[in-house]
């Protein structure tokens, strides 16, 4: 009788509160029922993928030319889609339906590849995510400043150069993120991702429209088949530019490092793998279409003079409100994209702190008239605020938009988008060594390693060159 009572209590509600094993309210791992769909998953992916990287694609295309630019974007999209499909199959260890779930990218690495790889991957992933936060802390203020610069140029008729310090805008963006970062968990950011995805479509569409308009005004398509500069620049500089362009494109497609975190929000049935693959295919197809339009039309409009941030090339465009709206959309999008990238970092630190110091999990209810009480966690408030302050400080120290994006794309693309998904997939599917498929996967990995290495060199060379003429905390735009 006692055993029957225990079973009954485990499978039914007690005083209206569902038990932790009730399948109506909880998933197979005892966590609250996941609610993610193909649409929320696609929103997360698009928010992560169509970020500040899209704005640098016209410049990247200018370095590679009409042949190399579109070809590079298509190849990166195919590789990203292929490896993300493999990574999606690693969400559950062993059985794709009933296997143990991995809640994060590094959890999947630990379950499938082991502890040593887990340590190395964790260092690379969280450094990349932190670097992305720095990149967004640079990109968003540029758009903020562009709004003010556009107004200044129109008022002066283009006579005033309108130099603006970036520091107040970086600090302002950091303050905004301090408040937004108090969203407790990644699962709670779906609404922010939906808004951010809409904004990304908005400013990408405006960028394409403006580029088409500028091309029509020019009366011709600018650019060359091979790209590069027609000015007297050294071969070394052109090579570094090509390498950095590859890094920028790689960064524009990077989202594998948070794919498992996104997949952990998906409800089942259907299986999380099926939903994730469909969402990845949809998202990569949509983003590639936008990338080709932004990169190619931006190059057609400006040729070798394509700016590092596409929207900055239209400061004198009329109507000015359209440019202002596009830049405001960039800022709103990056507020959401920032959270998509840093929430896994928050979760990692807070999970570790809770294991060592259980008191860090204590929450205090703060009454809000007309709303539910807010659960204030002092540790979360203090540590996340400190994180934002440090990130903003570093962004103010090295405010090089293109160079930072290229470097992040270079160092993160091969290990996170290619190497770990390939190695986990090989073990998960038990692919025999030296079989045709094993050889193909290794060839893809080696080629991507070489490309990542070259892109890292190009971006590092550009950063070193920029540092020769830069004074810390005194940047103007």
From TrEMBL:
Carrier protein involved in proton-driven auxin influx. Mediates the formation of auxin gradient from developing leaves (site of auxin biosynthesis) to tips by contributing to the loading of auxin in vascular tissues and facilitating acropetal (base to tip) auxin transport within inner tissues of the root apex, and basipetal (tip to base) auxin transport within outer tissues of the root apex. May be involved in lateral roots and nodules formation. GO terms for cellular component: endomembrane system; membrane; plasma membrane. It is found in: Cell membrane; Endomembrane system. Residues 34-464 form the Amino acid transporter transmembrane domain. InterPro entries: AA_transpt_TM. GO terms for molecular function: L-amino acid transmembrane transporter activity; symporter activity. It is a multi-pass membrane protein. This is Putative amino acid transporter, transmembrane domain-containing protein. Coiled coil: none annotated. PANTHER family: OS05G0424000 PROTEIN-RELATED (PTHR48017). The gene is 11428649. The chain crosses the membrane at residues 38-57, 64-82, 126-145, 190-212, 279-301, 321-341, 381-401, 407-427, 439-464. GO terms for biological process: amino acid transmembrane transport; auxin-activated signaling pathway. Keywords: Amino-acid transport, Auxin signaling pathway, Cell membrane, Membrane, Symport, Transmembrane, Transmembrane helix, Transport. It comes from Medicago truncatula.
């Amino acid at each position: 009788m006692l055993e029957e009572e225990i079973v009954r209590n485990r499978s039914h509600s007690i005083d209206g509160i569902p038990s932790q094993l009730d399948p109506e309210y909880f998933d197979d791992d005892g966590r609250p029922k996941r609610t993610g769909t193909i649409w929320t998953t696609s929103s997360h992916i698009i928010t992560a993928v169509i970020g500040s990287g899209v704005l640098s694609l016209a410049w990247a295309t200018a370095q590679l030319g009409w042949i190399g630019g579109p070809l590079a974007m298509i190849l990166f999209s195919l590789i990203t889609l292929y490896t993300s499909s493999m990574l999606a199959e690693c969400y559950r260890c062993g059985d794709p339906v009933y296997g143990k779930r991995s809640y994060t990218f590094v959890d999947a690495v630990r379950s499938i590849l082991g502890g040593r790889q887990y340590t190395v991957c964790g260092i690379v992933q969280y450094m990349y995510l932190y670097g992305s936060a720095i990149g967004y802390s640079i990109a968003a203020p540029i758009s903020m400043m562009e709004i003010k610069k556009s107004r200044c140029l129109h008022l002066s008729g283009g006579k005033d150069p309108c130099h603006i310090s970036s520091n107040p805008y970086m600090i302002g963006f950091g303050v905004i993120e301090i408040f937004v970062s108090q969203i407790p968990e990644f699962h709670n950011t779906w609404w922010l991702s939906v808004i951010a995805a809409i904004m990304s479509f908005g400013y990408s569409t405006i960028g394409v429209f403006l580029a088409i308009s500028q091309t029509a005004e020019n009366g011709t398509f600018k650019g060359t088949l091979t790209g590069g500069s027609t000015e007297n620049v050294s071969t070394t500089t052109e090579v570094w530019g090509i390498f950095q362009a590859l890094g920028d494109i790689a960064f524009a497609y990077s989202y594998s490092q948070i794919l498992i975190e996104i997949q952990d929000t998906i409800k089942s049935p259907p299986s999380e793998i099926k939903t994730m693959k469909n969402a990845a295919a949809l998202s990569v197809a949509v983003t590639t279409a936008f990338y080709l339009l932004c990169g190619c039309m931006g190059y057609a409009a400006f040729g070798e003079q394509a700016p590092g941030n596409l929207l900055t090339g239209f400061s004198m465009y009329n109507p000015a409100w359209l440019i202002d709206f596009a830049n405001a959309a960039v800022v709103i999008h990056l507020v959401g994209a920032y959270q998509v990238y840093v929430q896994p970092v928050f979760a990692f630190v807070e999970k570790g702190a809770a294991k060592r110091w259980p008191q860090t999990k204590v929450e205090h209810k703060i009454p809000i008239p007309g709303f539910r009480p807010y659960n204030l966690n002092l540790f979360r408030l203090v540590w996340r605020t400190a994180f934002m302050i440090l990130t903003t400080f570093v962004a103010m120290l090295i405010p090089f938009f293109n160079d930072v994006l290229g470097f992040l794309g270079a160092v993160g693309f091969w290990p996170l988008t290619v190497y770990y998904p390939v190695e986990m997939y090989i073990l998960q599917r038990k692919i025999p060594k030296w079989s045709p498929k094993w050889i193909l996967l290794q060839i893809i990995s080696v080629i991507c390693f070489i490309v990542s290495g070259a892109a890292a060199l190009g971006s590092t060379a550009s950063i070193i060159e920029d540092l020769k003429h830069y004074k810390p905390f005194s940047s103007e735009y």
